[in-house]
Amino acid sequence: MVEKISLAHGDGGELAHQLIQNVFITTFGHHDQAKLDAAILHIPQEKLTISTDSFVIKPTFFRGGNIGKLAICGTVNDLAVSGATPLYITVAFIIEEGFSIPQLQKIVSSMAEEAKKANVRIVSGDTKVVERGSVDGIFINTTGIGVINTEEMLPKTIDKQDVIIISGTIGDHGISILSARGELGLVTELNSDCASLNDLTSEVLNVSSRVKMMRDPTRGGVATTLVEICEDFNVTIEINEDALPVKEEVEGACDILGFDPLYLANEGKLLLIVAKEDEEKVLAVLKKFDIGREATTIGRVSEVETNGRLFLKMLLGSRRRLNRLAGMQLPRIC
Amino acid sequence: MIETLKQFSSSTISQALLKQIEQKAGEYKEKFGREPALMEVCGSHTMAVAKTGVKKLLAGKVKLISGPGCPVCVTDQKSIDAMIQLAESDERIICTFGDMVRVPGTNRALIDAKTDGRDVRVVYSPCDAVEIAKENPDKQVVFLGIGFETTIPVLAVALKKADDERVTNFSMWVTTKLVEPILRKLLNEGDVQVDGLLLPGHVSIVLGKYHYQYLVDEYRVPGVICGFEPAELLSGIYKSIELLLNENPEIINSHQHVVRDEGNRQAQLMIDQYFQVCDEAWRGIGVIENSGLDIRDQFIHLNAKSRFDIKAGEPKPTRCRCGEIIRGLIPPEECNLFAKACTPVNPIGPCMVSSEGSCAASYQYLREE
């Protein structure tokens, strides 16, 4: 009989105490700290960054990760791409009555493992249990705090001819999740790219002072992220269709389902805007990492102008404008 | 397979083909005094010529007209209203292909019914809907079966599954369309100048090449069956113009790695076994005799139209010009609503919703920079 979460695990009584002791405190390695209502943080720098994100992914477990790993990577990455060193994370769980405790343990363990890898400490947490049907299994919120340790803050002024670099293949997470949902009759061996990027970002910032901006292109994919940059920073960007790194499985699935990899979510990819002179240097650093092995330049800033736009230069030579995706990317029917 | 397709997306081959098309199109213009007009029958072709840039690159040289081949777009407003009405019951689970959920009916779309708590689910295969019916024996599960000959065999497979496994709470609401009657109507009416047809890659897998011989025998219009990669599209266009120049119409199967000349016999048999010809209403066009398929009388127990008492009223007319767009009479940009009142976020007509709709293709890929 698998142990399951009951409403009593969230009522502050004995069962709640046991859950917190056995699952959270043990796995996250908190002991004395858990006796306090709030964590005390020691932060040397003056410039702090803070970011929060909620994770509701379906399915909870997928190839290459689970909701717990994603909840750590997601927040670590939001801090990392702003040029910060992530230090602390808080986690809050909302769990559906009936959720399997061994599965919860797995989720919590991968959070602890990923936090260790990313060198962040989980310093505060909360658990709520709600009636069956009120949430879909488990939802997690994480909030992260980091410090900015470069004198020069990101983003910096973007110039004409700056290059756009991506740290690897695009759309892996999107297709992997679609296939894990099992609703599309699509079977792939594809892993989600879910990974923490803070090692990459700190190494890149160490070698180059000409990194203008970093982003992690999650929901909405590379295209949506770049459209936002074009609009917010008044630049026009042109990316090349033949330069886009896309795994064969992703390309095949997109063909069948009518998706565009440029709009599919990534959870472990770094998108950078870098001055042309540092392009090779940055690429070389990215390629030293396993998750940056396929780093490549995908385009450039073609103009600095108000009403910036994003263009795709296509294989046949013409170019078309890329906009935000309207509505959901839904499977087509024939 | 992907390797095979990759060679068709190669830009060197495509660049060479583009040059040759320009040359042939020039010869055509010299001979006939205008540019050749080709209709891409299939919605996926409409999307592909827009997305790959082929349409833009050939502008002013070859006129590419979007045809009636997007199954969502040709679905009559009244049918859409009926489907939405079908969803307005707590006793039912409505399963549908993705594009349908956002198509606006007279008052609202399926997605609005879903937001209000109705059980509307997007499935990729109609057989998934049969499985959902098995998992929910206390609910009526209805699959909304729309599509052309590509999709109809898949609908038949789901009907077979439900019938074989005696899934009594499953039924299908069918409004399918056939390619031949609408092509005949367009060619008979002659409102739009069509010199040649780019024939659908997917539908032809089922129908084969021989099926289209009537185009040549009765209308003297050539057709080329082609795929969706840039080089496949371009070679289809090239061959079409060549046929026009030679004034020797024929049907060419330029998609031979997928389409057999005789089609897919097994799929055709499945269609025959479960479906019978019926009159169908086409959006903006009206009822065309024998232009669709409905479930055969012997499987009437699987037909949602006889199981449920759904009567949609006459839809309110809108200023949406999807009907003319489907027939190739006007390009999307000529509709006053296009990209103003009607956008993919707030669509007025189905052509702006469907991933194969010509309005969606124009909005996404062909608008002014």
From TrEMBL, chain A:
Q: Which residues form the PurM-like N-terminal domain?
A: 37-148
Kindly give the SUPFAM superfamilies that the UniProt entry links to this protein: PurM C-terminal domain-like (SSF56042), PurM N-terminal domain-like (SSF55326)
Entry's Gene Ontology BP terms: protein maturation
Q: Where is each PurM-like C-terminal domain found?
A: 162-304
- Identify the Pfam families for this entry: AIRS (PF00586), AIRS_C (PF02769)
| InterPro entries (UniProt xref) | HypE (IPR011854), PurM-like_C_dom (IPR010918), PurM-like_C_sf (IPR036676), PurM-like_N (IPR016188), PurM-like_N_sf (IPR036921)
Q: Which family does it belong to?
A: Belongs to the HypE family.
This protein's name: Hydrogenase expression/formation protein HypE
Automatic annotation (TrEMBL), chain B:
Family the UniProt entry places it in:
Belongs to the HypD family.
GO biological-process terms attached to the record:
protein maturation
Q: Which organism is it from?
A: Anaerobacillus arseniciselenatis
Q: Which InterPro entries match?
A: Hyd_form_HypD, HypD_1, HypD_2_sf
> What's this protein's name?
Hydrogenase formation protein HypD
Please name the GO terms that the record assigns under molecular function: 4 iron, 4 sulfur cluster binding; carbon monoxide binding; iron ion binding
Mind giving the lineage of the organism this protein is from?
Answer: Bacteria, Bacillati, Bacillota, Bacilli, Bacillales
NCBIfam families attached to this UniProt entry = hypD (TIGR00075)
Keywords, sorted A to Z: Iron, Metal-binding
The reply to whether Cell membrane figures as a keyword in the UniProt entry is no
Q: Does the keyword Metal-binding apply?
A: yes
UniProt-listed Gene3D superfamilies? 6.10.20.100, HypD, alpha/beta domain 2 (3.40.50.11740)
